[in-house]
Design a protein that fits this description.
Blueprint (H helix, E strand, L loop, with lengths): L2 E6 L6 E6 L5 E2 L8 H15 L3 E6 L9 H17 L3 E5 L3 H11 L10 H18 L6
Parallel strand pairs: 1-4, 4-5
Antiparallel strand pairs: 1-2, 2-3
Length: 141
């Protein structure tokens, strides 16, 4: 049974979300450990605990569709994901996902400390949900 880990990469915070063939992305606790090794360890723990079979990473295209400086950072991160975990990695356009996640918190009149990684994990769930919706479209109703 496939299990997907959605990832919203950031230099200090890595948003994480979980989804499976049921097609619903759920935010998880973000990788917000102070050091890079700790963040990698957190990702590895989630992969092992959840039986992740595929990784879905938000890719930061510019608004004009080009790949900029931040995309190169994500490229390096993806190569390291592949090296460490030997799992398929899918890239999903992440333009505006953080804005969507922040808007959800505002709509619920909820304030969140950015450092908690909660918004990042909600952005990861938006990224993963987009992927799941394309992979497993809902039946016509």
């Amino acid at each position: 049974m496939p299990g997907y880990l959605g990832i919203d990469y950031g230099e200090k915070r890595i948003g994480l979300s979980w989804g499976d063939e049921l097609g619903l992305a759920t935010p998880l606790r973000a990788a917000v450990e102070k050091d890079e090794a700790g963040r990698w360890r957190r990702i590895g723990e989630v992969i092992a605990e959840r039986g992740v079979t595929e990784l879905v990473v938000g890719y930061p295209y510019n608004m004009d569709g080009s790949a900029g400086f931040k995309a190169r950072e994500v490229d390096l991160f993806v190569r390291e994901l592949e090296r460490r975990f030997s799992l398929p990695v899918h890239l999903v356009d992440e333009r505006l996902t953080s804005s969507v996640a922040e808007e959800r918190f505002r709509a619920r009149k909820r304030r969140v400390d950015r450092r908690s990684g909660e918004i990042d994990s909600h952005a990861a769930s938006v990224i993963l949900q987009d992927f799941l919706d394309r992979r497993h479209p809902p039946p016509d109703g």
